[in-house]
Fold each of these.
Amino acid sequence: MDTIDPQAIRDSLLARDVILNPPATEDVIAQLNSWAGGRLHSHVAQMLREFDGFSDWDYEGKSFVSVWPVEKALSDDWTRRPLLAFSDWSINAMIFGFDPSSNGPIISIEDASVVAPTYAEFWLRLLSDSLFQTK
């Protein structure tokens, strides 16, 4: 079973001096839930209750990945139901998206290649600097 530990992910990012956005408000989570057809996956809601993304450049030292706050994700030009664009690598060189009503996969929106098989695995790969390695 795929599990996620939002506190451990938050703590790991903080240990790397990543400046996290505050948690998403329940109103923002409800807005995303509505966008997802009332079926927001529990892992997504759990992560948003810990932090709502992190600003560009805060995690560039190794991965060049940023994770966007919900409001940016919902308004991004790459977001088209059911895919929510929620993250990028190297200043939009690659945009990551997924269906937030499911647990993945996380794909590169431009070419539909799978970056991680699940939402939880995306975070594990991000923290281990292995988003672009295949197993």
Amino acid sequence: MSALICLVKKGSTAHLLDWQHSTKVERFEHLVVFLHRAKVDTTEDIRAALKSAAFCADLQSLNGVGPKTIDYMACLVGIESIAVDRHIRTFAARAGVNNRDYEFLKNAFCFAADLLSISRREFDAWVWSREARHQAPQLTFVF
């Protein structure tokens, strides 16, 4: 975080991330400042902090940070989890699961990964990749 906080202070975040969306850049900067203030500097620090319910609750006080962000960060630092996003929800709907509740879907997909004896992170990545590739067939025009 030490290096990132310097970039945030210099106003170089958008350039570093190559992001155009000012709201997303601002959220990233708030996250970096939050982690810096919490003395979370390394991957190991993040991994340890994310195991604390109090830290996760404080983190979710940031605008735009919810359970999906927490779970995604956990996956990035090696904690087995499922980040329920639109791809997980679409896959669940196709499988006939009509419950859209975040915790329900997270638990269902974690359970499925455990039953299949595969990493929850790998299962999440597989579903994400599959759904990201799955697109409606392109319409063809016949003249």
